[in-house]
């Protein structure tokens, strides 16, 4: 068994959006891809990492399959609440999720100011870590800018760190 020197649980990786309508973050996470995928797909785990603390996410429903829907309520410490939901478009077990906030159950369009297609991928690395990439693809540059101004990078980055810590608790790295 190879010994691994202490390393950061999460390393920021530079990534360029594919176009002006996309926002993206990438992190090298010291956890296996299947554990990170589980964090995204196990309704019992979502409340532990999905929102930057002290916010929490409550899973109202979650049907993880292409065409399946999810519904969350994000709650803030001041009593504010924001619904979040959508439809899963593509699922590659342990490797990728694609979803949209623009549709709901039965492929019905939903109204909202912040609609996008999300893609999260989990690429195992030779050293046991995982390259985690999260993309939010918007219909317009204006919507992407609005999402950026809402704190996309900070919020999704903090959530990635919280997810990494949870995944490490699920499967501690060998030292």
TrEMBL record:
Signal peptide: none annotated. CDD domains: SRPBCC_CalC_Aha1-like_3 (cd08896). Residues 30-166 form the Activator of Hsp90 ATPase homologue 1/2-like C-terminal domain. InterPro entries: ASHA1/2-like_C, START-like_dom_sf. It comes from the Bacteria. Belongs to the AHA1 family. This is Polyketide cyclase.
């Amino acid at each position: 068994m190879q010994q691994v020197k202490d390393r950061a649980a999460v390393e920021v990786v530079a990534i360029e959006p594919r176009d002006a309508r996309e926002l993206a973050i990438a992190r090298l996470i010291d956890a296996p891809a299947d554990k990170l995928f589980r964090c995204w797909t196990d309704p019992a785990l979502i409340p532990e990492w999905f929102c930057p603390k002290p916010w929490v996410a409550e899973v109202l429903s979650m049907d993880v399959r292409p065409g399946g829907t999810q519904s969350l309520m994000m709650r803030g410490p001041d009593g504010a609440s924001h619904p979040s939901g959508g439809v899963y478009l593509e699922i590659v077990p342990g490797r990728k999720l694609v979803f949209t906030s623009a549709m709901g159950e039965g492929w019905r369009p939903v109204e909202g100011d912040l609609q996008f297609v999300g893609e999260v991928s989990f690429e195992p690395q030779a050293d046991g870590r995982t390259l985690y990439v999260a993309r939010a693809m918007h219909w317009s540059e204006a919507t992407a800018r609005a999402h950026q101004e809402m704190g996309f990078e900070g919020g999704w980055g903090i959530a990635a760190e919280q997810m990494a810590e949870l995944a490490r608790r699920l499967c501690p790295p060998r030292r």
